[in-house]
């Protein structure tokens, strides 16, 4: 079996007196879809942030492609997130002043791509996800579902190895939520990207290859599908 | 107002974000402190004017001449770049009056000095100063008699004869001047920077000018109050909308908004009052104003203070209600973030038309100099159009800047900033437009105040460029020992020459001196005006021979109204027809002194007459002339040499203390320079206020967008890119508007001076001041960004992404 792309072992993290993670460990292989499931306050978002290098655990280690993420400087982790990871958040977190195509082109521009080329590629992704008609619109002028699909396009445009999705359907109705998940998972599989998904909905978790259940900051049940 | 509404309003205000409340109260407090400072500036200016104009005696009306009382004259000299002012006083009889700041009138040979002058006398260069005072130090001048804590000022008792000269009244006055309320000081008490008594007082215009400036300067402060109160408007709007959805009435929401606004206003006003009194002393000590500033002089009138303390809470209460107007109209007001309508580019039309008009005026500036009507109309019309344009085009300018940044700006930061400016150009411009208008008004004040306050007397400024820059011009009293003064000056190391000038009227021996009544009678022999000086020595001093000079020979001066042949027949002439006679040669020729030396000026040094007589021909003549002997002392340019020359003259040159032409011009300008300084300080304070407003609104905007910033950070966006975006969004509108304001001010001022150039006025456009305002705008922008950085860092913390 190949080395895991991303591995966390013995993660501990506390916010003040509250233990968010209490000795958590997981592995994600290349191309794998993993769902982190649990109720509110179980530590799933905190775990996702540690895996993505956004948060540093108090103890334990996170290894990505053989390198310890927690040992890197903030600048190095920032570069890693820019070049290797993609993100989808619950509320989209699109830049409200930029149009859809500009939002999608953002990761490419951050990596140094010229504007014209980046926006051309962004348009391809918008078309692929069926939202090319909102290319010139700003987030405030789109529906929730359209906004999340734009966010998915933004997460995938730079060809990341891992996509981190934190409650991507949390603010959507069930129809739009399933639409977004199909687009996300389908596009990620086509690119060979791994997906780490945080959700509290079982039907959304079903899109993943594997579920990891968290409770009170601990892994209680990794269930392979 | 229901008790529940008030209690809920208090609860919502105090239990909400502490940071936001602190920012709101802080913004209001800063505005209140600045308003009180501005309001205190008028009394401070009045105090300075009052003390300056009080340095003289009460005007003496017609009627029987008094035989006792006081006479006084202010003598203003220079020491190491500082003005040294000495009030020379003489007392007759048993009068018990005293000048302001001292317990009694000093007797002859006594000098009262200011604390700063006392310290200078005790300092390492005190030996330079002491001989210049006409007496020994006998006491101190207290604050009541001083313009500022750093003033070098003395009150010296002298004999009545020492006051017979330029500027001092001949009659005995009953008391020293007591000007009624500095800004309304009477004309007759007005003395300018050189100590010369002026016939017209600019102080009449000061209340209007300073009042207009104070009203204008309030504009950005009110904007700061308004923006501070509107912090987190979007979040509060959403809260208000949510409350409407559950049944709150518009009236109840207004009450809640009013309570929040009132709390912010009351706390802010109280904090502002405390801030003003805390900072008054250190700021007064730091302000770079001539002679310093007494903190206690910056005292806002009680009425104004009460108006501010009561008015600001009223203002913030209204702002609190107004900030909810969208939620008041519909419960769904804040559902979607729809871009606000951008200001149309048509709003740029007045500004563009104004700048075009000014360009035409510049292209046709020849017509302007002749006062052509069309040129003046374009100038004033263009200036007015620019002012209106600046007032209404702020949002359009921001939108234009946003479009340019987003399309052509380098990098993502430009795109972020540009897009934000396009989305809400009005918000970006709101805090800056008021500041830009005030910069124009204050810029005009800085440029035009000298035209209002310019002295008819420009001292010896006309000699700049005529004499070498380090030449000291010494005007002695009429009965001074000129030869002794020349010898003393020549003995100073570093002096390269000393040329005395004296005036005398020469007449045929036996011809009586005409009565005063006959002075203009053409049938009476008025004699010939002669200047006793060595043109050869003058040429050496100037570094170039004087055209036509024949040393040792009586010559006709080119300024004489007599033709050479008329003077040739004069024969032998003697001073006032008595004593040693001077032969006027038959073949008299003409010597031409440099134009600058012969220019007809009111009070400066000028050489005008009919004949130039070599000193050797009147050697031993020591009668006082009609005018004041003057020495031109050439030096090696070192400050030590110039000071040594002044010291060598001691107190003999008290009539008009020795100065270089540059120093003399500076003294003549010094009072208007003071007002210009004050206007610059006010402008800088205003620009920094604009920056503070920007910082407050930008920090608030960053806080409101914390999710976006946190998401961008999660995606790997470098923090410096986000900071650069904030800097561009903050700085571009500020720099654009202020830059245009300075351009408009400079262009209109420069063109206006061309139209109304007054030959006697000393007018310098304050280019350095304009540059300072531009620099202050940059600093304000940087400060605004720096102030926001902590919020950017906090807003990009991963905690912000947590959804549980």
TrEMBL record, chain A:
**Swiss-Prot/TrEMBL keywords:** ATP-binding, Nucleotide-binding, Transport
Q: Which residues form the signal peptide?
A: none
Superkingdom per UniProt: Bacteria
Return the CDD domains for the record.
Answer: ABC_MJ0796_LolCDE_FtsE (cd03255)
Q: Where is the ABC transporter domain?
A: 6-225
- Keyword hit for Protease: no
InterPro entries, from UniProt? AAA+_ATPase, ABC_transporter-like_ATP-bd, ABC_transpr_LolD-like, MacB-like_ATP-bd, P-loop_NTPase
Q: Which Pfam families match?
A: ABC_tran (PF00005)
Query: This chain belongs to which protein, by name?
Result: Macrolide ABC transporter ATP-binding protein
Organism annotation: Phytohabitans aurantiacus
Question: Organism classification, top ranks?
Answer: Bacteria, Bacillati, Actinomycetota, Actinomycetes, Micromonosporales
UniProtKB/TrEMBL annotation, chain B:
Main location per UniProt?
membrane
Compartments (UniProt record): Cell membrane
- Keywords assigned by UniProt, alphabetized: Cell membrane, Membrane, Transmembrane, Transmembrane helix
Domain spans labelled ABC3 transporter permease C-terminal: 217-331
For membrane topology, the record states: Multi-pass membrane protein
Residues spanning the membrane: 21-42, 208-235, 256-279, 299-324, 345-363, 378-406, 427-452, 678-697, 726-747, 767-792
Do you know which InterPro entries this protein is assigned to? ABC3_permease_C
Question: What Pfam families has UniProt attached to this entry?
Answer: FtsX
Which protein is depicted? ABC3 transporter permease C-terminal domain-containing protein
